[in-house]
Predict the structure.
Amino acid sequence: MENQIVKQQVIRMESAEQLVIHKLRKRPRLGETFIQGFLFFCGAVSIFTTIGIVFELGKESLLFFQMPGVTLVEFLTKTEWQPTIGKFGVLSLINATLMTTLFAMLVALPLGLGAAIYLSEYATPRARSILKPVLEVLAGVPTVVYGFFALTTMTPLLRAIFGEQVQVYNTLSAGLVMGIMILPLVCSMSEDALSAVPRSLREAAYGLGATRLETAVQVVVPAALSGIIAAFILGVSRAVGETMIVALAAGSGPNFTFDPFQAAETMTGYIARISGGDVSYDTPDYNSIFAIGLLLFTSTLLLNVISRRLVARFREVYE
């Protein structure tokens, strides 16, 4: 009898609790509704902005490829780029972009990863509190300042080392300074990935007799590999899309060359030069900047897709 009374009381309590929950769910929460609507609006704006960019680039690029003598095969396979006289081979611009990106990554990746390992595994709290703001200051320097630094400091330094074969405008100078610009980004993201590795992995390595260097290189870095790869690919995307440094220091004329000491124009440099000049609407030069912009957009999109796949492939989950 007592058990039945207890069961009935429990049932009544559960029913009352469910009724209260139901009323709370039905009660309108204006603040929560407003926040949810605002967040949805922010997401929708970013999505529609991207769609608008793709639409405009695609529409103007279509006008370019509909011009007489312009074909997609020639655009992607030829090396001479002079739209005014009917030469539409974009490989010279792509080659210069890849060269400057390669030089930038040769600077940013090893130095950025090394700095991240030091900040995560070796630096004292005092040293970290000093070095992190310094890196953030580097990240906040305008790119036009880096461009003038490459032109007035890095190029004379290269000419003092390698001689007069280094031209005033060259891809090596632009790439090296671009690597210095990307260094804070790679270092910060890599350091965040290394710091996210559980302390227990480090303690286990120390317990097995590993040194601090062995622990950092053989335990912590592999565990944070997905974040490091994401930092590297984001750095590559940043280098591909950089404009002012290459526009000021790399050169202002298409040149299909593998000599880092010669001037060569990148895709972003060409867009900056043409869009800043007095070019008439619906001309090959004007329409070509949209085709190159679409090519840049596609390249960065592919890099982001590769980054997500690599992160998912090498991601480590710790509980």
Notes: The first helix runs from residue 2 to 26.
